[in-house]
């Protein structure tokens, strides 16, 4: 693999906030910003010139599309990817919600579909689908979402969803469909990415030499525990790097050091 011409950094935003402070009744300044760590980190990333932010799917945290909407409102250039699972909503509703957000935020929203959930987590979310059916449903979810987005009449009959004479008209059909980020290394996950993904996100330690040839034409990402591995993965064809929130504040210094060392 060769190093991509450019690579982009995305900050992984926190999905949980500390409780609002308990103050005496005569105090009126409760400093709501203190309960919005995702918004503060996103503003820092936007000012630092990062390409994007990821609001991960967190079963015990705040709802990712709602957090993404707040982050998009607070930033001007940052592209924001919201992670959620297919059982969270119908694909038609998810598409309509996202089309509305795209209109108001210059098309900066992306999706990261969480498919391979731990069974206990999935059941706690009301989702009892297991095995390869999860990927089959995710494929239908994305097919339906894209189908209604691009106008009508749109008809679909699958194993998990049916739509009769659906589809959005202007202005909902005019913004770009959210950029789709997917992950996983199983045959089902790779097939889903080949069909629907714009970006495939690997985990550190995945065998990129074996997996990348299975995903032609996509951009590749990796979620990093340390900025020290950026150059290594860039040489292996990765262009999208997902970094911890605290690393936003160290990224400029890190890149400067790398440039001086090179």
Characterise the protein shown here:
The protein is of the alpha/beta class and 262 residues long. Helix content is 36%, strand content 19%. The protein contains 9 helices and 10 strands. The chain has helices at residues 37-48, 64-74, 91-104, 119-124, 133-149, 187-196, 208-211, 230-235, 248-261, and strands at residues 8-12, 52-55, 79-85, 109-114, 154-157, 162-166, 179-183, 199-203, 219-223, 240-244. The strands form 2 sheets. The protein has an 8-stranded parallel beta barrel with strand order 1-2-3-4-7-8-9-10, surrounded by 4 helices. Helix 3 (91-104) packs across helix 5 (133-149) and helix 5 runs parallel beside helix 6. The protein is globular and about 55 Å long. The chain starts with 7 loop residues before the first strand and ends with a helix. The model has no long low-confidence stretch (mean pLDDT 89).
Task: List the topology elements.
Blueprint: E1 8-12, H1 37-48, E2 52-55, H2 64-74, E3 79-85, H3 91-104, E4 109-114, H4 119-124, H5 133-149, E5 154-157, E6 162-166, E7 179-183, H6 187-196, E8 199-203, H7 208-211, E9 219-223, H8 230-235, E10 240-244, H9 248-261
Parallel strand pairs: 1-2, 1-10, 2-3, 3-4, 4-7, 7-8, 8-9, 9-10
Antiparallel strand pairs: 5-6
Helix pairs in contact: 1-2, 3-5, 5-6
Helix content: 25-40%
Which segments are poorly predicted (pLDDT under 50) over 5 or more consecutive residues? Answer: none
How is the largest sheet built, in terms of strand order?
A: 1-2-3-4-7-8-9-10
Oligomer: single chain
Total strands: 10
Estimate the mean pLDDT confidence.
Answer: 89
Structural class: alpha/beta
CA-based shape: globular
Biggest sheet descriptor:
8 strands, parallel, barrel
Secondary-structure element pattern, one letter each: EHEHEHEHHEEEHEHEHEH
């Amino acid at each position: 693999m060769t190093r991509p011409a450019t690579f982009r950094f995305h900050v992984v935003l926190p999905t949980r906030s500390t409780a609002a402070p308990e103050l005496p009744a005569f105090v009126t300044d409760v400093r709501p910003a203190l309960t919005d760590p995702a918004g503060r980190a996103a503003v820092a990333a936007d000012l630092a010139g990062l390409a994007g932010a990821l609001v991960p799917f967190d079963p015990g945290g705040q709802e990712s599309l709602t957090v993404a909407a707040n982050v998009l409102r607070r930033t001007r250039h940052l592209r924001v990817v919201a992670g959620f699972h297919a059982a969270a909503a119908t694909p038609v509703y998810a598409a309509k919600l996202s089309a509305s957000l795209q209109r108001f935020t210059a098309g900066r929203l992306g999706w990261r579909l969480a498919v391979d959930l731990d069974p206990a987590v999935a059941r706690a979310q009301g989702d009892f689908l297991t095995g390869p059916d999860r990927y089959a449903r995710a494929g239908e979810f994305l097919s339906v979402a894209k189908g209604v987005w691009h106008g009508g009449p749109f008809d679909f009959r699958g194993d998990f969803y049916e739509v009769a004479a659906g589809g959005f008209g202007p202005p909902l059909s005019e913004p770009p469909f959210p950029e789709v980020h997917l992950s996983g290394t199983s045959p089902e996950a790779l097939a889903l990415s080949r069909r629907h993904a714009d970006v495939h996100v690997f985990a550190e330690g995945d065998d990129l030499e074996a997996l990348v040839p299975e995903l032609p034409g996509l951009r590749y990402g990796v979620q990093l525990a340390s900025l020290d591995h950026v150059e290594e993965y860039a040489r292996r064809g990765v262009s999208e790097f997902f970094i911890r929130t605290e690393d936003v504040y160290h990224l400029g210094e890190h890149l400067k050091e790398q440039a001086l060392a090179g």
